[in-house]
Amino acid sequence: MQGARTDSGRMIRILEADLTEQRVDAIVNAANETLLGGGGVDGAIHRAAGPDLLRACRALPEVRPGIRCPTGEARLTGGYALPARYVIHTVGPVWNGGDAGEPGLLAACYRNCLELARQKALATIAFPAISCGVFGYPPELAARIALREIDAHAWSGLEITVCCFGSRILESYRRAAGARDID
């Protein structure tokens, strides 16, 4: 396992791992606005959690027709068949070159997920590399935003894991953390 110390001294584990296998209080789902499953990490989480997750997502109110979670926001459900007690669903921005508010929306994803975790008094949380898959966010840029927001909004004692899919994303997160005393 690879650990990075943030500017505030918190430890973050950065690893190439299957998010759905993490034994933590909550995993974060990089979802779409419908929260009804999809591809990538979203589909993997829905498959691993079983049909109860889809039922729970369907039970969440729509804020607009077909939209249960707007980009940058977060919603909480149970973890069902996952080893995590909860799933925090967030919708990251689709990369459109960086001039369409993407950095602020991505930062909001991390802040809102951490706020839900704080409200539930969680001790452990695992994030994917939000928006770095099919949403096309450059991992080098996303990693800096993720680590900055985690450092600014996580609390002492919270154990954080970032599960990266693939070596390119993993190395981007490790490089972003490089100035932060990689263990």
Automatic annotation (TrEMBL):
Superkingdom as given in the UniProt entry: Bacteria
Single GO molecular function: O-acetyl-ADP-ribose deacetylase activity
Pfam families: Macro (PF01661)
CDD domains to which the protein is assigned, alphabetical: Macro_OAADPr_deacetylase
InterPro entries: Macro_dom, Macro_dom-like
Domain Macro: 1-181
PANTHER family: GANGLIOSIDE INDUCED DIFFERENTIATION ASSOCIATED PROTEIN 2-RELATED, MACRO DOMAIN-CONTAINING PROTEIN
Protein name: O-acetyl-ADP-ribose deacetylase (Regulator of RNase III), contains Macro domain
UniProt source species: Dokdonella immobilis
